[in-house]
Amino acid sequence: MLTEFKIPEVGENITSGTAVKIAVTVGQIIKKDQVLLELETDKATIEVPSSVAGVIKEILIKEGAKVNVGQVVMKIEGGAAASAASASTSAPQASEIPAPAAAPVTKAPTTSQAVQPAAPVASQIVVTKEVAAAPSVRRLARELGVSVADVSGTGPHGRISLDDVKAHTKRLITAGPSGSGVSSGGGIATPPLPDFSKYGEVERKPMNNIRKKTAEHLSHAWNAIPHVTQFDKADITNLEKLRKQFSKPERKLSITPFLMKVIAAALKNFPQFNSSVDMATAEIISKKYINVGIAVDTPNGLVVPVIRDVEKKNILQLSEELNAVAEKARDKKLTIDDMRGGSFTISNLGGIGGTSFTPIVNWPEVAILGVSRAQMEPQYTSTGPFVPALMLPLSLSYDHRVIDGADGARFLRWICDAIEQPFLMELDNK
After folding, report:
1. Is 168 labeled as catalytic in the residue annotation?
2. Of 39, 80, 136, 287, which one has the greatest count of Cβ atoms within 10 A?
3. Which is the catalytic residue, given 157, 217, 227, 400?
4. Considering the chain, what is the average pLDDT of its residues?
5. Half-sphere exposure of 407 (CA within 13 A, CB side)
6. What is the 3-state secondary structure (H, E, C) of 293-328?
């Protein structure tokens, strides 16, 4: 029996990827669940296993090729009938909704000012009862910032599908607000680039999928969220002593797990920072869970794995889990689920340097904490002269639609006060 192996569905809203590595050769005997290739998608690099056992008779693609879900990429002799994994080529079901933190996020054309898209978007999304569309389709349209009423349905009696919404959004992005056909990735038109080769030698390299998706996601976040960034410093002299005390050669502690624990406590005291905005319904969605995303710099680009239920774990547990996901990120082994469901993000650049920066909120979250390099600075004490202290610069960016400046200042000051009392933190349950 000759089985056609097709690219299976590897995640919600993922329709294609790049075959970055082919792990088998023609004539090779393989087992069921053996990895055939590595597929780089917009969200992660995924190992694609075989659904059958047999012999590789033909490989229809080369490394670096773009492939689509459902595309036949290999032929295997001796295998049983293709399993559901290799036969799942049907269109996404109506219940499928893209993961908000990493799915392709775009929006309808707005003005060129990054801080004023909220009102136009809210006014555009007016859904009438006459529109034939499932709830999942309406939700996808809201998340992409388009009106279901503007979408042309291709289903029976004009019913609108998920694919119709995606196609409509793609047309809006391609056209740009003035029909220029040039888009910056966030739905805002940009003029064409000049011919740089007139001035000297140049080289063009295509973006990898992760870099491309990061550009699209951050463009959308910057355009959709009215950003405000506030700055403060925390005295981590005592925290650094505690970190060194519990850090061992076989178990090195960084400052990030301590910050995660502080953030978890802060989100309980300031629940508006653990929310999302639904401008379509003029609602604020409050989250009862605390999952913290950690921005990780990798050779392939920025990824944000999520640590779940941070408030239920101690410092050492968070450190072990953080080290594990960071290693997976560097090895391109993160799964889509590893990057879903965050409610707040930390971006720590302290190991690289810098005095401060303005991080972009990771939509659909409403706040992000930026961490820069700690430095020794003189601090005045009421009981004596200046004393040296290790001061940690913190940058808090937040969505001004949900969070007022006074609340932002209180939240960041609360974090600083908590960091300065590290011995109150739970290091180990034992």
Report:
1. no
2. 39
3. 400
4. 79
5. 18
6. EECEEECCEEECCEECCHHHCCHHHHHHHHHHHHHH
